[in-house]
Here is the input.
Amino acid sequence: MVPIEQRELLEQRSAGVLLNISSLPGPYGVGGFGVEAREFVDRLAAMGFSRWQVLPLGPLDAAGSPYAGDSAFAGNYLYIDPGLLLRQGLVTQEEEAICRYGGSPYTADYAFARRTRMQLLHRAYERSGAALRREAETFAAGRDWLTAYCLYRAIKERQDGRPWWEWPEDRRYYKDAQALMEEPDIRYRAEFWRFVQYLFFRQWEELHGYVWERGVAVIGDMPIYLSLDSADVWSRPELFQLDPETRRPCRVAGVPPDYFSAEGQLWGNPLYNWEAMERDGYAWWVSRIREALSLYDIVRIDHFRAFASYWAVPAGAASAREGQWEPGPGAGLFRAVEAVCPHPAILAEDLGVFGEDVVRLLEETGFPGMRVIQFGFDPQGDSTHLPHHYPLNAVAYTGTHDNNTLLGWLWEASPQERAFALRYCGFTGENWGEGGYHSPSCRAVIETVWRSSARMAVIHFPDLCGFGSDARMNIPGVPQDNWRFRTTVETLDQIDGAYYREINRLYRRS
Here is the structure.
């Protein structure tokens, strides 16, 4: 691919596929940065796709969600590929074999992967040698977040995984805890985590370079909020809305009742102290976005509407309904970003409860928003999610990781919604419920999105295959059994590549 300005990637007519790293095939219980990722990119390029969208690459929470991790900057060690460590000579064949998973290839097993990957990474660190550790030290230079993160991880291990507010007093505050680096055990653990982050970023950079060579750009994903039990909240509590005495949240994040939930969603993440952030020119956010723009080619910011106004729920509330809207930082934050990262390639996830303040912020920044065709099929309405309304400066989706699959949606829609959707998309047959790789109803919806004027169109991987609702990635508001979907090489082999190559050519998205 010819080097171009990142923002120009948003101005090209293109098509992409949404598939998370964890969902890739492979032998280790979850997908990773190994050879299977490169083979997947080869398939994308052969089908005429030039965008690959992934979910956040950061640490996962206990349920496997990448949207409430313990760092805004760190990478997920589960994606470090054991096979690449074997080729590098950092682990033996016997050690690599321990990471091979004997269970179902269709679901991610995070518990197995965590246990075996940690064992392997400790072996790799012990075998790394002085030269590689110096490389890890050089990698850490200039990454201010890394010192706090590694110390946080080291102390957390010593505290048997307890959250930072349950640690002893001399560990509960980062400014006090830095003295613990003089302890050999803490220093060893912190340096181990620094090495792990070095491996993560090295493997990702090598994969990203391969993706770019194949003519594909990566769309990354940035969660707007963090877990309370995170290195960022622990080390920078002044940036969050916390009680000064207890350092526990006064109010927490969520969203009011919407498409996904009549009660709204009570996420529980700490909210930002925007007044404190404004005083130093939004330095933390500028640093975060700058890092993301170096990690990906395009950055999708989740829940973008919170920069215009955010839903604040009193801590301890039983329901998100008890929240209220508060003003966000608005365009001032993005002017600060622009001063450091001119013309950033940012995609705004502007879904959910809308408002004129969000519209104004999108106009001021010029960032494209999102359209999801499944949201458009109210038989009595004229939704902005119907493709005849799509502006050029938008990214159109068949569905996101939070949606049902196309086939699952057709089966679960009301008869009126389904009839309107099928007629709108030009489907005239009677076999609308037929799924699979040649599903005629799914193809009718996909082609409707592809014909739209939106510059970029993205298909969620299960829709590429015509899968039903059992292939969903996430059901918002349901805490268990999410984020587990995986594909296999056999599945990839059955995708009708010629069909996608043709519609990408036909609708000028190649």
The radius of gyration is 23 Å.
